[in-house]
Amino acid sequence: MKEDFLHYVWRFKKFPLTGLTTTSGENLQILHTGQYLQRSGPDFFNAQIVIGNQKWAGNIEIHLSSTDWYIHNHQHDPAYDNVVLHVVWNHDAPIFRKDNTEIHTLELHHFISPGLIQNYEALIRPKSWIYCEKQLASIDSFTLQNWLERLFLERLERKSEAILTLLQHQTGDWEAVLFCLLAKNFGLNTNGMSFMEMARCLPFSIIRKEHFEITNLEALFFGSCGLLEGEKQDQYFVELKSAYHYLAEKYRFEKPEITPLQFFRLRPDNFPTIRLAQLAMLYHQKENLFTSIIHSESTNEIYNLFNVSVSSYWQGHYQFDRENQLKKRTLTHSFIDLVIINTIIPFRFAYVKNQGKETIENLMSLLQSIPAESNSILDHFTSFGIKPKNAFESQALLELKNDYCNKGRCLECAIGTTLLKY
Prior knowledge:
Low-confidence stretches: none
Protein name: DUF2851 domain-containing protein
Number of helices: 17
Shape: elongated
Order of helices and strands: HEEEEEHEEHHHHHHHHHHEEHHHHH
InterPro entries: DUF2851
Number of strands: 9
């Protein structure tokens, strides 16, 4: 038995509301179970109960055993002075307030149906991956789809908080925020944080002024990421290095401290040199990038927007001083899909939320037109009977696994609470 199960039982009144008695034999009536705020202090605030003929208003504390009150030192915490009912699974000792009056106690296990307990024990049986893996396929599509929508919204809300924090750092400049997010996405998992550090430290006002010249943008990006250190025979390297020093002097900024970029085990098309060159070309060619991203209505519009290649030098190189076969190295649809999923959707949600115009229908439609991602988490869900049909569903399932399954939040999950009813 776990305490969160008792929270679930109390919160959703999964016990008879008539015939209740306290451990001292007094009749108990529940008028209002209280607010479940999940913060420090008692578990439920502002409950209303009647014990005997006396009405009480106050807080509810829930424990597995009565003596947990003393184990958790609640007797010394003023936040618990207003507890009017102690709800426990097992009453093993009377509990007293600081004024030596006994706190009324409800021993809950007498009033819970055996079927609910059996369903709970079946739900939390030892797992190989997640608790409900053997029961997932039994969940009806209506419950699942509604829950996936909720998970998707929670994921956007969580990501938007980080974006709005970044907005403060960028003094309210949404274009600068977009640049940071795109840079992180272009760096992928391996170099994403390094690209983000570069974007945060490089004033976006400089990019606005220099975007007409691709060489200057590459110089800014490569130089800030530490790719122009040392000496090379390559003439383009020398040109970029000279341009970077000129720009640094012109705008009076110092090279930021960036986590070193990684090339190891990356496919050449994902080398940081190529991704930085593509990012530079994007900002060189797309002058109204922010406006276009905010107002794009379909994946095709976004594919066209991100239809960029690299400068002529990088069409024949992956690294300085090493020539390769000529290739345009355009952004692929699969890469742009990742940009839509990880940058454009969260960015647009945060933007409209900041403008007081919360809406997710168009964002859901965009993701529903994109294939589901492919990774080990989604492979597991597929093997247990839930195969994502598109990126909207795969994003929601990732949120489910990371924020609910991994944290054992089964009783806060629509799937878990539905299984308890069976």
